[in-house]
Amino acid sequence: MSLRVAVVGSGPAGIYTAEALVKQSAEPVEVDVLERLPTPYGLVRYGVAPDHTSIKSIANYLRKVLELPQVRFLGGVTLGSHLSVEDLLSCYDAVVYATGAMVDRRMGIPGEDLPGSVAATDFVNWYCGHPDVDPDRFVLDSPEIAVIGVGNVAVDVVRVLAKTAEELAATDVPHDVLERLGDSQVKAIHMIGRRGPEHAKFTLKELRELGELANADVCVRPDEAVVLGADFPRQIRGNIDVLQSWAARAPVGRPRRLDVRFWLRPVEILGADRVEGLKLERTRLEDGRVVGTGVYETLPVGMVLRSVGYQSVPLPGVPFDASTMTVPNQAGHVRGREYVSGWLKRGPTGVIGTNKSDAAETVRTLLSDLAGHDRVRPASLDDLLRSRGVEPVTYEQWRHIEAAEEALARTLGRGERVKLVGLDAMRDAFRGR
């Protein structure tokens, strides 16, 4: 009897886990990859910026895993509403949770719940066509926007805000979203970090892309680009050099302006019925900690996008540590026949490829634990779903969605694909409507 494993989540962590199971198992293995959406690839599809086509090409690798004969994709299946942990354990020899980190951390300041104060992940999901976000969710009618954070997600967000619709037309941005971006009234974008340039989390490649923007002047204040000391790793030194070079040049009058700011922390989002401003406090380091100086300034922004870190959310019936926002585990083992992989296991660290070695560790643990154990599976997942009126989206149906997106791009004269928006449009695509 084959070893049967359910992997909950079809992002890189989940698919790398499926691949590791096929490669590492000495006995026949069958892997079902369960996903609440009709579409696989997780962050690669709904988190990578649309103009980063080389990163998005990782989907081509992940596709090959889903096409392995030992692997089955089951979309539209949700843990909690369709199935419980007990259901899965009755159908599989082991379960691996790999649902990632899906929400932004909050800043915890007054005014954070005002309309116009938004998690960066919501904005990213919007321009990436995530079905959880209505394409009408954002109206870019404010001349000034603040993005809080100096990591790669923040860089992606400000780059998309700074570009023209024409520059993004060849990407897979949903058409309704592209029209919203084309109507944008944004003239100034402020990217704000609590610490100095040497503490920024973006990679050098991502940072340099900002300097290549054709539609926006990128500005850094000389006094905020000052860095004490010179003994920095190569990556950080590169970031500092780029930022200081921008501080030494003058704007040339491009339609938009991107101000990259440091040593400022948000203390209050201002406004009565919606965001009307952002109050910031100048900061400094004291014994390695960021402290306020009592010097304030206010930016007249109409939107604040926070990008201060991701965190996972608890899964129904699965242990969760609220202090680390992860599932407690030992080398991927949670309890009994339950395991975890990816950001849900270790927190939101590393790059997409980091999930591959992480998944391999979890699978080694799983296979070692289950070696020699009898296979006892009293239930069939297919029968269970059928009895509950749940019809999973198959891999073949997902390919119909892809084909519809490619056809839409041809119709619109836009690149290789244009994402369908909404679950109804996706269902129509795989049902041939």
| Proportion in helices | 25-40%
Quick one: overall form? Answer: globular
> What is the CA-based Rg, rounded?
23 Å
**Please, what is the average pLDDT?**
94
Structural class of the secondary structure composition?
alpha/beta
Number of strands: 17
Summarize the main sheet.
6 strands, mixed
Uncertain runs: none
Beta content comes to 15-25%
Give the end-to-end Cα distance, rounded to a whole number of Å: 40 Å
With strands numbered from the N-terminus, the spatial order across the biggest sheet is 3-2-1-4-17-16
Number of helices: 16
Write the layout of secondary structure elements.
Blueprint: E1 3-8, H1 12-24, E2 29-35, H2 43-46, H3 53-56, H4 58-66, E3 71-75, H5 85-91, E4 94-97, E5 103-104, E6 117-119, H6 120-127, E7 144-148, H7 152-162, H8 165-168, H9 175-182, E8 188-192, H10 204-211, E9 216-220, H11 234-247, E10 256-261, E11 264-270, E12 277-286, E13 289-299, E14 303-306, E15 310-311, E16 333-335, E17 338-340, H12 343-346, H13 354-370, H14 381-387, H15 395-412, H16 423-430
Parallel strand pairs: 1-2, 1-4, 2-3, 4-17, 6-14, 7-8, 7-14, 8-10, 9-10
Antiparallel strand pairs: 5-15, 11-12, 12-13, 16-17
Helix pairs in contact: 1-13, 6-7, 7-10, 10-11, 15-16
